[in-house]
Amino acid sequence: MADSTQQDLIGLEKKLLERQDKLDVLREKLDHEKEDLDKKRQEYLRKIEKLASMTAEEANSEVLKETEKDASAQMAKIIKEKEEEARITADKKAQEIVLDSIKHGALNMIPEYTVSVVKVAEEDLKGRIIGKEGRNIRAFEQATGVDVDLDEEGIIRLSSFDQVRREVARRALEVLLKDTRIQPFRIEEVVEQTRKELEKIMFQEGERVAQEVQVFNLPSDLYPILGRMKFRTSYGQNLLVHSLEITKIAVHMAQEIGANVDIVRLGALFHDIGKVLEGEGSHVTLGVELLKKYNFPEPVINAVAEHHEDKPFSSVESIIVHVADAISAARPGARYEDLQKYGQRLSEMEKIAKNYEGVEDAYAFEAGRELRVIINPGRLSDDETVILSRKIQEEVSRSQAVPGVVKVTAIREFRSIYPETPTS
């Protein structure tokens, strides 16, 4: 009995010790929690003290900061996901916009050459064009500034790098072939009338182009300048076709990305207008000066000034005009650099000759191998004309990379007419 009681006491003591250990653990845990609560209490007390000294607006601001801090991680995650999605779809979307813009800018392309052809119904007509001792054909070449080739049967070829001259010559020749009066004075009269008619045609062409791209209320002086682009090429690419093409491409791109369509439309249409203007400086400079003269909006002027990246881009519209220009010019077969250099070389040759005193006009032929100079007979004698021809030949050969020998033909013709016959 005593042994049993002793064992019960030992067991009870053991349980009490175990319970004491558990209580000690719980007490220690509670002490830690109490310390944490005290720290948080002190922290909140500091915040309450701070808020107590704030205005309602300052307190709201503090609450918003805390909220933003909590939401910043979530916002960063969302932004990162959206950026990744944009990267995946951006290239595809950009490709779709460009391809769709090219489709809207598609035009019928016409190859440009430096030769125009006039068909002849009868070979006998060529004799009338040549005239006695070649006087008619000389008068025609002098009046038009083109080279006439009669060698091929059934056609007459008119050669010149200047397309306006060639068009005047073609139209004038067609009139003369129907006319029985083919003589120098009649030739000059028809050529002059044709020039005036072509000016009207250029006005109508400029008006048509503006309407096609939905540009209205332009100053009337700008229509013939636009129409002149029909008879101008840039690297073998017709300037008017190129301008129409990039205007349609640029407008569609602007519509797709939400840019200012009106600025893009005018900037694209007039981006190369300087190429048909006379004056000092690049075509960009000449184009900008023209638009300033007619008080175009500054964003349009900037689009023209920046389309070759001569200046940093100032707007999305300028970038669109630049990109559309690159698309039109860079497509396969659009341009031929040799033709552009050819035209520039012949223009320089003519310019050199015209700089000499006593020279009325000058025309380059045969890919720059021949230069015909029209002399004012009242200012230079025959001997002075011979000396001038040699000077021009030496300067052209020295300054221009022309294969072979340059032939300079100076024409000095004195006329006395009584009574004077009007040529209008």
Can you tag this structure with a few keywords?
8 strands; about 425 residues; Ribosomal Protein S8, Chain: A, domain 1; single chain; about 65% helix; 4 domains; Hypothetical protein af1432; mainly alpha
Radius of gyration: 42 Å
Element-level helix/strand string: HHEHHEEHHHEEHHHHHHEEHE
CATH H-level homologous superfamily name of the largest domain: Hypothetical protein af1432
% residues in beta strands: 5-15%
Question: Could you give a short account of the major beta sheet?
Answer: 3 strands, antiparallel
Protein topology:
Blueprint: H1 2-52, H2 56-104, E1 115-119, H3 124-130, H4 135-144, E2 147-149, E3 155-159, H5 163-178, H6 184-212, H7 222-228, E4 233-234, E5 237-238, H8 239-257, H9 261-269, H10 283-293, H11 298-305, H12 316-330, H13 337-354, E6 359-365, E7 370-375, H14 382-399, E8 407-412
Parallel strand pairs: 7-8
Antiparallel strand pairs: 1-3, 2-3, 4-5, 6-7
Walkthrough of the structure:
With 424 residues, this protein is mainly α. Helix content is 63%, strand content 8%. It folds into 4 domains: 24-71; 115-207, K Homology domain, type 1 (Ribosomal Protein S8, Chain: A, domain 1); 221-335, Hypothetical protein af1432 (Orthogonal Bundle); 347-412, 2-Layer Sandwich (GMP Synthetase, Chain A, domain 3), CATH 3.30.300.30. The protein is built from 14 helices and 8 strands. Helix 8 runs antiparallel to helix 9 and helix 10 (283-293) runs antiparallel to helix 11 (298-305).
